[in-house]
Amino acid sequence: MKFKLILITLCIIFFGTSSAEKLNFNIDHKVINSAKFDNGFGAQNDGNFIQKDRDFIELYQDNNLITKIPSFDEDGGNRFKKILTRYDGNNIIRVITYFPDRGHFRIYYDIGFNKNRNLFMLNKVSFEIQEWLSETDARTIYCYHQINQEVNELMNSDDWFHKIRPSVYGWEDGTVKGNCIVSNKIVEYENAYIVVKKSHLLSKPDINHRTKMYLVKGDIVNLLKQDHDFYYVEYINSKNKATKKWLHCSALEACNKY
């Protein structure tokens, strides 16, 4: 009994009291306005500590649980990191996981809501890794894959979960099924969007205010703000010069299709 009390005390010190609570993420969307993820250990009535179920993320609207989606969290593998709000028509949230023992390696899961079918959809899976070419030089590799898969099917099938999960070498079958972008500078893609076609930049959120500047397929932009179907973005070129202009949502495959 004495040993058991010591063990429980050490667990409390190690994990902290906050580990027994859910991580809360505020989301500004008419379908959901918050997400919760159980991130740690909790104590049972008998004092024994067990790890809580990290498999799901709960989605809420006005404190009412709407549904659960996969957290894509795995013991000994990719671990849940955080949730970002995606302010576009197709994706409500972006779930980010990472591999703690593989250096810089992140996976992004973009989840949206099909209001016509009343279903949550996994629209895209991306991964980002950084390879060090020398002690001072690194390059970033970013690959993405359009999925368009019902979340409910992912919840009920381990096969789907493994098919969508990328690895260091590409996708599960050993090849990259999406588009890959390689940069010789370290890039953070957490808030990034990819230009899907040649698109002119706009001086105002209006298609009649087109400038002579344009971006091409594969360019990366950071979303700064949104005005209906127009996105105010920042683009950094190969010479590290930043340009801030407007883009129509079609340039980023971010228009609301539903």
What is the average of the pLDDT values?
80
Q: Give the termini separation.
A: 60 Å
Radius of gyration: 21 Å
Order of helices and strands: HEEEEEEEEEEEHHEEEEEEE
User: Structural class given helices, strands, pairing?
Assistant: mainly beta
DSSP summary, beta strand count: 18
How many domains, in number, for the residues? 2
Write the layout of secondary structure elements.
Elements: H1 2-15, E1 22-26, E2 34-38, E3 41-43, E4 49-51, E5 56-61, E6 64-70, E7 79-85, E8 93-98, E9 105-114, E10 119-132, E11 138-150, H2 151-155, H3 158-164, E12 179-183, E13 192-194, E14 199-202, E15 210-215, E16 220-227, E17 230-236, E18 242-248
Antiparallel strand pairs: 1-2, 2-5, 3-4, 5-6, 7-8, 8-9, 9-10, 10-11, 11-12, 13-16, 14-15, 16-17, 17-18
Please name the defining characteristics of this protein.
single chain; 3 helices; disordered N terminus; four-stranded antiparallel beta sheet; SH3 type barrels; 258 residues; mainly beta; six-stranded antiparallel beta sheet; 2 domains
Give an overview in words.
With 258 residues, this protein is mainly beta. It has 2 domains: 2-190, no CATH class; 191-258, SH3 type barrels (Roll), CATH 2.30.30.40. Helices cover 10% and strands 46% of the residues. It has 3 helices and 18 strands. It has helices spanning 2-15, 151-155, 158-164, and strands at residues 22-26, 34-38, 41-43, 49-51, 56-61, 64-70, 79-85, 93-98, 105-114, 119-132, 138-150, 179-183, 192-194, 199-202, 210-215, 220-227, 230-236, 242-248. The protein has a 6-stranded antiparallel sheet. A 4-stranded antiparallel sheet has the order 1-2-5-6. A 4-stranded antiparallel sheet has the order 13-16-17-18, with no helix packed on it. Strand 9 and strand 10 form a beta hairpin. The longest helix is centred in the first third of the chain and has 14 residues, at 2-15. It is globular. The N and C termini lie far apart (60 Å).
